[in-house]
Amino acid sequence: MKILKNLFKKSQKLTFFYSIILLTTLTSFICFFIWITPSDYLYIYNRPFGSYNSTLGFDHIYCINLPFRSDRREKINVIAKFHNLDIDFVEAINFKDTKTLKHYSSSLAPHHKACYASHYKTYELVVSNNYQSALILEDDVDFEVNIKDFLNEIQPFLPNDWEMYYLGNCAWDTSNTIYYNGNEFGSDLILSKSLRPACSHAYAVSLRGAQKLLKKLVNISEPVDVALIDLMLEDKIFSLSLLPSIINQWKSKDDPSDISPGSKDEPHNLKNSTLELFGYRRIPY
Fold first, then answer.
1. Where does the source fall among the domains of life (predicted)?
2. Core-most of 105, 211, 244, 249, by most CB within 10 Å?
3. CA 266 to CA 243: how far, in whole Å?
4. DSSP labels, 156-179
5. pTM for this prediction
6. How confident is the model at residue 281 (pLDDT cuts 50, 70, 90)?
């Protein structure tokens, strides 16, 4: 009987001890959530895991593709399968489709006008579907093997009011406004305000950004990527650039450009190419 009483007393002490620990933990947890701001809730809930989902943390992924370029569609599907991504193909407007192109006011040459119209069409899809963000790809891209890890590294430093976000471009595009310098953390990634991000093969738009582009990219006289740079230089849209690029153009002699036929631009190589991982090889010009 004495032994039972001792056991009962010990159990009471243990129960009291664990109750104190539980109460302290709950109090700390509640105080933490009272202290943080509403925008912090959004960060805590979404950001650490967002880049690992099937749309890389964006609401949607679009890829602009001409129907007859099944070779490029095949490569995009390889990339999508490897990275477990949901990519929605947008039918690009053919430069020969004069009936459709006449609805877009622009003095551009047919190939560049078709490219512009295809991007404009994609902005319309973002707005009509009310996506808060969407990644827009052209169909000649290649991904870094570790793209999700790179995006996850950057996500906590993204300003909430971004309107465009380049994951790849054809220039070393960095400004004096730096949001993340990976050199301080053993990484080579840099996130900065965009300056002149040439090319338009891989960039995201927010809903607000897409709405702005629909209003401002009207009757353009320069290729769409140049027109976008003009908006940035005039501070008419808030754009970010990630360097080095984690999505680049796949340039090869057997994969000619649909916008600039005959061009022989040198490729900007990735550290670890997804397409090369699957045996694709570039043929030099």
1. Eukaryota
2. 249
3. 18
4. GG--TT-SEEEEE-SS----S-EE
5. 0.80
6. confident
Is residue 284 assigned to a domain?
no
Q: How far apart are CA 276 and CA 254, in angstroms?
A: 15
What is the domain count for the chain?
A: 1
Residues 252/282, Cβ–Cβ less than 8 Å: yes
Q: How many CB atoms lie within 10 A of CB 176?
A: 7
Is residue 237 within 8 A of residue 194, CB to CB? The reply is no
Start-end of H helices in the chain: 2-35, 38-50, 70-83, 98-101, 110-128, 147-154, 207-216, 224-233, 274-277
CATH number of the domain enclosing 123: 3.90.550
- Residues of the chain with pLDDT > 90: what percent? 67
Q: Give the side-chain half-sphere CA count within 13 A for 44.
A: 8
Which residues is 205 bridged to in the sheet?
Answer: 134, 164
Residue 128 CA to residue 116 CA, distance in Å, equals 18
> 142-159: string of b/e by CB count within 10 Å (b at 16+)?
bbbbebbebbbbbbeebe
Residue with tokens 């793209």: 147
